[in-house]
Design goal:
It is built from 13 helices and 26 strands. By secondary structure, the protein is an alpha+beta fold. The strands form six sheets. Strands 11, 12, 13, 14, 15, 16, 19, 20, 25 and 26 form a ten-stranded mixed β-sheet that branches. Strands 8-7-9-6-3-23 form a six-stranded mixed β-sheet. It has a three-stranded antiparallel β-sheet with strand order 4-5-10. The termini are far apart.
């Protein structure tokens, strides 16, 4: 079954394998497949000429099925939701800029998250395929319509173990209270640890249409449409600004009393990173703020975004000089001594991005930026330069929980192929190898409510180490709650004939104690 994956940055499709890989083909089978392809070509290939099959038609579907949900399973440990590692195939058609180059040149110039030694070993194990035939030499020259497949052993970062509560499911919409740390749908290193997959795996809800999105670290009301018709209706309300969204946040310092309106235009600094700032060339933006309480150190503020720009609340609060208390981006000192208060940055966009990467890399919080590998490596050099504090011992590496650059198992590396594919309208295919499910997890499909001890036992039985996977050699301390939450919460979502609300978060209450 083919389905198209809707991720944070791209609508892409992938084929997945769980458990023992079945991508090894005999030389004879490969030769027979090649002979069949040559016959289908309709013309005799010249000596040394390589046949490339025509591209397959794109599947317009954007939902996930049980096959995708069955790729792996969850376990809970120390208050965190974790995912058993699994095999996963990233796929893409050859980009125009790759035509005439060798696979070696492409990996060397664009996919530096892994070493060339890794790719050579992956070739020997049949993990890299071209037009579904295992590659035996990275010096093969790429041609138009070449279909590339790279099998990786995929690890996902842990997220909050707090339950994903369904507030409403009335046949038209599904409304949930999203915990902080969960992406809405697959993106970057996250796939199963996302709202979409949790709803599918645990609640049996699939084929949902996203109405709006929340940042990964933001919690609160999240609305999905059950049908395309309802989705179009809600989209029209969004365009006509008939929907009212209310947020609550905790900011640094004493926010002014009374109503504060910020109408500064917002410009996207980097589409790839999603970084924004106030700029006269930006898009019209308007946010209304009102202080709810002040505890002597920080203020709880009600926020009403009247437009829907990326990071609008966070950027406007930064401009006003009251960044969200624990905002890892817009509260960062990388913006300068005044942290862009009044729109004063004092550096170019490139310098700003480099400063943010440098700060988060040095403080081992690079994952909070959700940066693509090539963006990081372009600023920081090879991945080994960004692993301060990592110690190697007996073929195992102990790394900070927040480190997101070291041995990233090819995950973000080829995810960026998917990102670019969306922009160039290229085709990605998706198929799940659900038939391998029983071999890997058949005996270990634990209940989501199992105790930590039982979960650890199941993990030790289900965890499959991969000989090429760098992530398998890393022992990461678990992230703390501070790493997984930002003090920004979507409190209410209101339309002409509906209103959905959540409870006030603990950090916004009067009796909350600030560290």
């Amino acid at each position: 079954m083919e389905t198209e994956e809707d991720s944070c940055d791209t609508d892409s499709t992938v084929r997945t394998n769980r458990g023992k890989r079945k991508n090894e083909e005999t030389d004879e089978a490969a030769k027979q497949g090649k002979r069949k392809k040559q016959k289908k070509c309709g013309k005799q290939l010249r000596p040394g000429e390589r046949y490339v099959p025509p591209p397959q038609k794109r599947n317009p579907g954007v939902s996930f099925s049980r096959e995708h949900f069955a790729e792996t399973s969850y376990y809970f440990e120390s208050g965190l939701r974790k995912v058993y590692p699994y095999y996963f195939d990233f796929t893409t058609y050859c980009k125009g800029r790759w035509i005439g180059k060798t696979l070696l040149e492409v990996f060397k110039s664009e996919f530096r998250a892994e070493s060339l030694d890794y790719y050579n070993k992956a070739v020997k194990e049949g993990r890299i395929k071209l037009n579904e035939t295992p590659v035996d030499d990275l010096n093969i020259i790429l041609k138009n319509n070449d279909f590339m497949r790279n099998t990786v052993h995929r690890h996902e970062p842990p997220v909050s173990g707090r339950p994903l509560e369904v507030l409403v499911d009335d046949g038209e919409v599904v409304v949930v209270d999203k915990p902080a740390s969960l992406p809405v749908h697959p993106c970057g290193r996250y796939r199963h640890n996302t709202v979409i997959f949790i709803l599918g795996k645990e609640k049996g809800l699939s084929g949902l249409h996203t109405v709006h999105r929340l940042d990964r670290l933001t919690s609160g009301v999240l609305l999905f449409a059950r049908t395309l018709e309802v989705s179009k209706k809600l989209d029209a309300m969004v365009r006509e600004r008939q929907l009212e969204k209310e947020y609550v946040c905790r900011v640094e310092g004493e926010f002014p009393e009374g109503e504060v309106v910020c109408e500064e235009p917002i410009l996207v600094v980097s589409f790839r990173v999603g970084l924004c700032r106030v700029d006269p060339k930006g898009k019209e933006s308007r946010t209304v703020f009102q202080r709810l309480r002040y505890n002597g150190r920080s203020s709880v503020v009600r926020c009403l975004p009247l437009t829907g720009r990326t990071h609008q609340i966070r950027v406007h609060l930064q401009f006003l000089g009251f960044p969200i208390l624990n905002d890892p981006i817009y509260g960062s000192s990388a913006w300068g001594p005044n942290r862009a208060k009044g729109g004063l940055v004092g550096m170019s966009d490139e310098e700003l991005l480099e400063a943010l990467i440098k700060e988060h890399c040095s403080t081992e919080n690079l994952h909070l930026l959700d940066l693509p590998d090539e963006e990081v490596l372009g600023k920081q050099g090879p991945k080994t330069e960004c692993i301060d504090g990592v110690q190697e011992h007996n073929d195992q590496i102990t790394a900070p929980a927040s480190s997101g650059v070291v041995c990233d198992d090819g995950l973000r590396k080829l995810t960026q192929v998917e990102v670019k594919a969306e922009r160039s309208q290229e085709l990605h295919k998706s198929t799940s190898a659900a038939e391998t499910a029983d071999k890997m997890n058949g005996a270990h499909k634990e209940n989501d409510s199992v105790s930590d001890e039982a979960s650890r036992t199941a993990k030790s039985n289900a965890f499959v180490r991969d000989n090429l996977c760098g992530e398998c050699k890393i022992v990461r301390p678990d992230p703390t709650e501070k790493d997984l939450i930002m003090y920004l919460h979507a409190l209410r979502y209101k339309g002409p004939d509906f209103e959905y609300t959540t409870k006030m978060p603990d950090w916004a209450k009067e009796d909350w104690l600030q560290d």
